[in-house]
Amino acid sequence: MIKITIRKMIQDDLGIVSELAMLANPHATKEEYIEHLSDELKENPDLSFVALSNDKAVGFVQADVRNDISILQDIAVHRQHQRKGIGKRLLAEELQALKKKKVKVILAQVHYKCSSAIPFYYKHGFRLSGCMQDCFGFGHDAIILKLSL
Question: How many other CB atoms sit within 10 Å of the CB of residue 100?
Fold first, then answer.
């Protein structure tokens, strides 16, 4: 059993987190994604978390809030550490932070190439809500899942 700690993300995490982000966003490049992650961290520092194993980031989650709706920007766990409850812990931390912000609905946009993540969301109460063509760029569609709090 590995020891995992969850903490708020810091700027120094962005290099490794951008590599993890490629798991959830196969269309993006690391360089492009560092900028996105950095912007989200600046805008929502209390909604950006990392999972650490031996002081190394092995997973992360970020969300954005608009009124009482949140968009789960990203959640990813290193392949070697998947299916060990890390994603569940990250999501739980994020949901607690979102409840404090009085969020009523959480939307997750899953790249169609990552549809294998849908059972994870279903396990945690999300349900299919729709799809969005070209959400992540031309030819990169998203499956939209929704969770009501």
Answer: 10
Number of domains in the chain: 1
How many helices (H) and strands (E) the chain has is answered by 4, 7
Q: Please, what is the angle between helix 30-43 and helix 14-24, to 10°?
A: 110
Question: Which CATH number fits the domain that encloses residue 117?
Answer: 3.40.630.30
Instruction: Tell me the per-residue pLDDT of 35-45, one tens digit each, with 9 for 90 and over.
Output: 889 999 999 99
Mean pLDDT, all residues of the chain: 90
Structure tokens at 127: 């349900």
Give dist(CA 84, CA 3) in Å, integer.
11
The enclosing H or E element of 90 equals: helix 86-100
Q: What pLDDT is stored for residue 103 in this prediction?
A: 97
